[in-house]
Amino acid sequence: MNEKPCTHEYLAATEFGKALFCRECGVVHLHIQNLSLRLGVADFLGLADTLTEASNKARAVEKDKTKRRGFTVVKQNYRLN
Question: For 29-52, what is each residue's pLDDT tens digit?
Answer without folding.
Answer: 999 999 999 999 999 999 999 999
